[in-house]
Amino acid sequence: MNHDDLNLWSKRAADWASEYHASLRDRPVRAPLVPGAISSQLPPIPPETPEPIETIFADFDRIVPPGITHWQHPRFFAYFPANAAPASMLAEQLANAIAAQGMIWQTSPALTEIEQVMIQWLRQSLGLPEGFTGTIHDSATTATLSAVLTMREQALGFEGNHEGLSGAPVLRLYASAETHSSVDKAARVAGIGQNNLVKIPTDGSLSMKPGALAGAIAADRAAGFLPAGVILCAGGTSVGAFDKIGECIAVAHAAGLPVHVDAAWAGSAMIAPEFRALWAGIEAADSIVFNPHKWLGAQFDCAVQFLRNPTPQVKTLGLRPSYLETAGTEDIVNFNEWTVPLGRRFRALKLWFTLRAYGLEGLRDRIRNHVAWAEEACEALRALPGVRIVTEPRLSLFTFALGDDATTEALLNRINDDGRVYLTQTRHKGAYVIRVQVGQFDCTRDDVQMIAKVVAALM
User: Fold this and answer.
1) pLDDT over threshold 90, residue 331
2) Considering 231, 275, 279, 452, which has the largest number of Cβ atoms within 10 A of its Cβ?
């Protein structure tokens, strides 16, 4: 395949994409879950000679769409969305064509400088104060790991990277059970250990108790542990829990600990000022992550980490051998020093296109609609005999159940096998519940109303 072929088949791919998105409502949201059904259609050995692109494309069309869960389906109400607005898809095509490696400023100045500007556009969009800067990661998991590694190094006087953790004090992190599993993974990967991630009790609204946080930190210090940092939750994955951000940050800072806030899903909603009370006090956070790919239309992967002061993270993750130096520009920003990977894709381009193509007001309207439609869906389900709303809507996320776990699980299986909508499950206070999360970029009110119709038909 050469560039002339690429020109032809890129146009064919664009036509295919248009037809695919136009036909999504006619497809089941989730592929039939039959392990091995896809791999059995592929040859067990690689080809020795070139194959025609016509054959390759035809195999793609035959095998992939029937075997995929359609994340861009307008009735995808499971997990959180991984949206792909048309403007973002266009930007990704251009980024793929350029195929730049933005590891340092000089390898692609546009990657670094557009990223810097996009961070400031988003800072203003979310109402964060001047002084915050940041970077773009692949996902919130990497951003949280970066924050936790920085907490570790700050606690150890930046000696952990050089001396290792053997013989070091036992470090402790603090979070609630409502935080994402990426926090647990960060504790493990950073060498702090799962058992040293202290889960702080929550109140009736599932918010971390500030007094319990203060008590846990003090007790650990008295026991000889070394507290390193606090991770707070702003829109938990399970049921949308929010910690009391301002109060918990005050407790952490009074104890001399940095704070990372995981707002991966809910952070996007903060472009609408009326939702910002949910994370009141966020301006005092040391690190914040949110995912524009979840609710702002940017293509996965795109996770933004804001930093009140980037110096500790750069000191933790930065490594500049001679072959990565840019002569005469010692103070230039090299974003690989802010993140775990050296290699960096041109993720800022899709933010630039998306924010301009829809505008903040257009994006706000989408989020406001999703929140309103979720509340409407909640009431429609509440009206069905036998349906119990377990957790009320937090933004566009709520949960419901039937009489017991087995009945609820059986209903969810029928819903997802039916294919008209796609929901998922979680456990809340030990009980099996069904999650409803509205956020797909192109969904309509009619799509959201389908949830109650399907549940009523399948109960």
Assistant:
1) no
2) 231
